[in-house]
Amino acid sequence: MIVRTLADCEQSNRKIVSETWDSTRMLLKDDKMGFSFHITTIYANTETHIWYQNHLESVYCISGEGEIETIADGKIYPIAPGTLYILDQHDEHLLRGTTEMQMACVFNPPLNGKEVHDESGVYPLEAEPVA
Ligand code: 9YT
Q1: Which of 39, 76, 94, 118 has the most crowded Cβ, counting Cβ within 10 A?
Q2: How far is it, in rounded angstroms, from Cα 42 to Cα 46?
Q3: What span, in angstroms and rounded, lies between the C-alpha atoms of 97 and 39?
């Protein structure tokens, strides 16, 4: 059994700060669960280009308002508390925070904890997906 608190994780190197978001990776590859779990804050009035070509990600909105646009078809989906979006097609997207949004994210394969997006919105592959 492993127990961690967000408050403790935020005080450690688990918290990564980027230009338009920060993310506290509470559960990572070295926990050997087959996925990682993060609490991410998307900053207000921002747009982030994301394309997880090597990962599957699901994101649940805890608080705040925004939208996600899938680039392949130009569709825009509102995000509000209670919304879960599931990037099952490795969907390239634009994530916009209207207000600050707090999100809970899971990744398969798990992140190792050091990743930040490169200029094309991609994280490098660290592991094969769990079947
Ligand atoms: C929602 C989203 O993908 N935000 C980018 C940060 C990511 N959740 C992470 O690296 O923790």
Answers
A1: 39
A2: 8
A3: 15
Look up the pTM and report it: 0.88
Tell how far the Cα of 2 is from the centroid of ligand 1, in angstroms: 22
Total residue length of the chain: 131
Pocket probe mutation, ligand 1, options 63, 69, 103, 114, max atoms within 8 Å of Cβ:
103
Q: Cα(121)–Cα(131) distance, rounded to whole angstroms?
A: 25
CA distances (Å), origin 50, targets 7, 13, 15, 66, 121:
27, 23, 19, 15, 4
CA distances to 36, 117, 126 from 67, in Å: 23, 19, 28
Cα separation, 19 vs 41, in Å, equals 11
Give the C-alpha separation, 94 to 97, whole Å: 10
| Structure confidence by residue, pLDDT tens digits, 72-122 | 999 999 999 999 999 999 999 999 999 999 999 999 999 887 766 554 555
